[in-house]
Write a structure and sequence with these properties.
47% helix; two-stranded antiparallel sheet; 454 residues; 1% strand; mainly alpha; 14 helices; flat
């Protein structure tokens, strides 16, 4: 064992010797003496070279080398030209119509970066005599034709280049602030309605408000009656005046799930973005933008990253199909276009989301499995939207029950029977431990098999 250990240590030391440098190593006397002798010899050789170049023999040698170089250059000039290099002056080169229409050489490399060009191309123009030129001559085409070319080029760039310096205007900021407060209040109201205790207090509060309103008007206070029973599914969504109370105290969005809130937020955010873009750019030629720039403008305005995977889709067309009542892709330009007017209220988008939810429920009840929506809950705009457009992420919810399940209602998550009192946003909390769990130390004492033993 001692011999093996010594051999192991010897190998380790040898390995270190081969890889590590010697920090304290200094040149030996032999090295210094040899280097000094070489430097003296080098100086001697250089002196001999200078002496030779100045002598008659050195000058004759230099002249002979110059004559030889001149002879080699003359031979190279007299060398025959290759057949493929011979130019026939009688051959006439004919250009195609497309080549004749070109007034400049096309290059695969741009003269300027797109990001830089997008900030300055709007200022491009032709020179004029008003700028101090004595004369402006148009060689390739007339002045009118040249001006049209520049105008068309600027217009084409408007259609393709994004507006780098665009900033959200006051109209967007005011609408966005109001939307954030409104949707947060709606989500609190839904949570209260799903909680039996809070629901009772909510109805009592509404009754007190009606009494107070009657007293202020000098009318007789209404008698206490049981809450009006209204089946929300029997109501026409368009006939609802107050989405926070359909008449019985129940909000129109009482059955909204994670996916419904996410799509509601996406609808209103895109609505505000598209209308605000036209206001902030103030360019009649730029009414919207294409899908490729949506992420840029969405981050500028909404301060969130745009990701189609947040809605469990992989193409813009599939996402548009989910919100086809709010936005569309223009057939000719592929620009995003809002379908709702500028003054459309948030309540109107709640009605659109409810109509969409009911449509999916009907399709699911008919056996259409594609009607079920399952958005990822980890991150992204869908999660932020479902949390209330305030940047908070909604908590994870259990998987849904199949459509048509008794407690699922066709659209609710499995086990969802209302908000649990004391739970956070979304109405879910950690389940209580089993009541038959042993509590004493003796009862908890483990055996070697890992089982509980009393």
């Amino acid at each position: 064992k001692d011999a093996a250990a010594k051999e192991y240590l010897r190998q380790k030391v040898l390995e270190k010797k081969r890889t590590c440098r010697i920090e304290d190593l200094a040149p030996s006397q032999w090295f210094n003496e040899t280097l000094k002798a070489f430097e003296e010899k080098l100086k001697e050789w250089q002196a001999q070279q200078v002496a030779f170049k100045g002598s008659e023999a050195g000058k004759a040698s230099a002249a002979k080398k110059a004559e030889k170089k001149e002879g080699e250059e003359e031979v190279a000039e007299e060398k025959e030209v290759a057949p493929d290099e011979i130019v026939d002056e009688d051959v006439v080169v004919e250009l195609t119509d497309e080549e004749k229409a070109l007034h400049y050489r096309k290059s695969t490399q741009p003269d300027i970066l797109d990001q830089t060009l997008s900030k300055c191309f709007m200022d491009f123009s032709l020179p004029t005599t008003e700028e101090g030129f004595d004369q402006v001559t148009f060689e390739w085409a007339s002045q009118d034709t040249a001006e049209k070319v520049v105008k068309d080029w600027i217009f084409s760039k408007k259609m393709a280049q994004r507006v780098e310096n665009v900033q959200p205007g006051q109209w967007f900021k005011d609408a966005w602030t109001e939307w954030a407060k409104t949707v947060a209040g709606w989500k609190r109201l839904q949570a209260e309605w799903k909680d039996p205790n809070k629901k009772k207090a909510l109805l009592a509060k509404k009754a007190d408000a009606k009494k107070k309103e009657a007293e202020e008007k000098g009318e007789e206070a209404p008698k206490e009656e049981a809450p009006m029973e209204i089946n929300a599914d029997d109501l026409q969504v368009s006939s609802v005046e107050n989405v926070a109370d359909i008449g019985s105290g129940e909000p129109l969005f009482a059955e909204f799930t994670y996916e419904d809130w996410a799509l509601l937020s996406a609808r209103y955010e895109l609505h505000l973005l598209l209308h605000s873009f036209k206001k902030d750019v103030e360019d009649p030629d730029r009414q919207s933008f294409t899908e490729k720039d949506l992420g840029f403008y969405y981050q500028k305005y909404v301060k969130k990253n745009w990701a189609l995977r947040s809605f469990a889709v992989d193409t813009m067309e599939k996402f548009i199909d989910l919100v086809k009542d709010t936005v569309r892709l223009a057939p000719q330009t592929a620009f995003l276009e809002p379908l709702q007017g500028e003054e459309t209220t948030p309540s109107a988008f709640v009605k659109l989301a409810e109509e969409h939810r009911r449509e999916r429920t009907r399709r699911a009840d008919a056996g259409d499995e594609s009607a079920e929506l399952k958005f990822p809950r980890t991150s992204g705009i869908a999660a932020a939207g479902a949390a209330g457009s305030l940047g908070r992420l909604a908590p994870q919810q259990p998987l849904r029950a199949p459509y048509g399940a008794p407690n699922g209602g066709g659209m609710r998550p499995a086990g969802y029977a209302g908000v649990v009192p004391g739970a956070g946003i979304g109405g879910f909390k950690r389940p209580a431990p089993p009541t038959n769990t042993p509590t004493s130390y003796v009862a908890k004492r483990p055996t070697f098999g890992g089982a509980w033993k009393r």
